[in-house]
Amino acid sequence: MDKELTLDGIEITSVGAFIEEVKKLREDTEGSSTDFYFRGQEVDLWDIRPSIFRDNMLSVEHKLMQIPLQKNPFDFKELNDNFEIMVKYQHYGMCTRLLDLTLNPLVALYFACKTHGNMKYPNEKVEREPTGIVYCANYYPSHPNDVNVKIVTFLAQCDLSKNNKIINILDTLVEKKIIADSQRQRWKNEQYIKEFIDIIQDNYLVVPTYSNERLKKQSGVLLLVSAFTVDIVDTIESGIITKSTNDLRTKFNNTFFYILGENKQEIIKDLDLLGINEASLFPELEHQLSYIKFIHQVQTQAVSDFHPYQINDSGKVIIYDNVNEDELN
């Protein structure tokens, strides 16, 4: 593993060892008013970014958030707010500023132990199955209707390459009835503008309504990532807001868990005994069938090659093998 990452890393070689380490982690923070949330990644070298922060997709976020609503309005008519719309986007593979976490550490361990395929590490000559990693973090849970969540999801829909002045954004938030006019007047004051900046630069752990079957099965929660850059040169009137990307590894605890590639498959088998597998975590048919194929692979036996069959004039069976078509004729 990367030297920087191994400082507080705990190697996991079995499900039992992982459970014991998580128990210790929770005992060390007993009495805290925050909960632990986990994220598993199959490659330890990966950073932690929501999908909208990759491949410059952030520059078209406002289009990705708006066009599906225009083209398929009936698919979203039952949803109550922008956050629920973003959750549906996330479920169907759209780039969003949501990051999947889970309350269940065993679910995170499953994702960390998924087979990635051999890859070459820096300064290593031979390719190998990468090390998996489980991150954890403490957060106060937020609600989709919290004003901070509404502000961030609104900004996700905005084209901040154009209308990005703080004053204009505050005016629009009032027009959309997201904040009260008294709040706008407060944040226009240089003494209190930091309150608004803190809101749009923080991240929010949101427990969604479990109408989404996959989220329910995975004990899933969503981290709404802000990362809006604010520049104020002289006065608030000159201040602007821009969208920017961020690696969230620093937002997780120093303590994390890693699983060497050689131990992944054994842990996956043990998790299966506990009911943590592809079929239990993903309700879609394609995953159900994939799991059935996976569990039956270990029961396979050698199967012989096909041989043509023919009876000659004497009634004897002739088996032709390794002959070309002309000889067979």
Query: Percent range for helical residues?
Result: 25-40%
What is the chains' assembly state?
single chain
Helix/strand order = EHEHHEHEEHHHHEHEEEEHHHEEH
Distance between the termini: 62 Å
Rg (C-alpha, Å): 27 Å
The shape is: elongated
List the helices and strands and how they pair.
Layout: E1 9-11, H1 15-28, E2 35-41, H2 61-71, H3 82-91, E3 98-102, H4 105-112, E4 132-139, E5 141-142, H5 147-156, H6 166-175, H7 181-187, H8 193-200, E6 204-206, H9 213-217, E7 220-224, E8 228-231, E9 240-243, E10 256-259, H10 264-273, H11 278-281, H12 285-296, E11 309-311, E12 317-319, H13 325-328
Parallel strand pairs: 1-10, 5-6
Antiparallel strand pairs: 2-4, 3-7, 4-10, 6-7, 8-9, 11-12
Q: How would you summarize what this structure contains?
A:
The protein has 13 helices and 12 strands. It is α+β, with helices and mostly antiparallel strands.
In words, what does this structure look like?
This protein has 329 residues and is of the alpha+beta class. The protein has helices spanning 15-28, 61-71, 82-91, 105-112, 147-156, 166-175, 181-187, 193-200, 213-217, 264-273, 278-281, 285-296, 325-328, and strands at 9-11, 35-41, 98-102, 132-139, 141-142, 204-206, 220-224, 228-231, 240-243, 256-259, 309-311, 317-319. The strands form four sheets. Strands 1-10-4-2 form a four-stranded mixed sheet. Strands 3-7-6-5 form a four-stranded mixed sheet. The chain has a two-stranded antiparallel ribbon with strand order 8-9. Strand 11 and strand 12 form a beta hairpin. The radius of gyration is 27 Å and the shape is elongated. It starts with 8 loop residues before the first strand and ends with a helix.
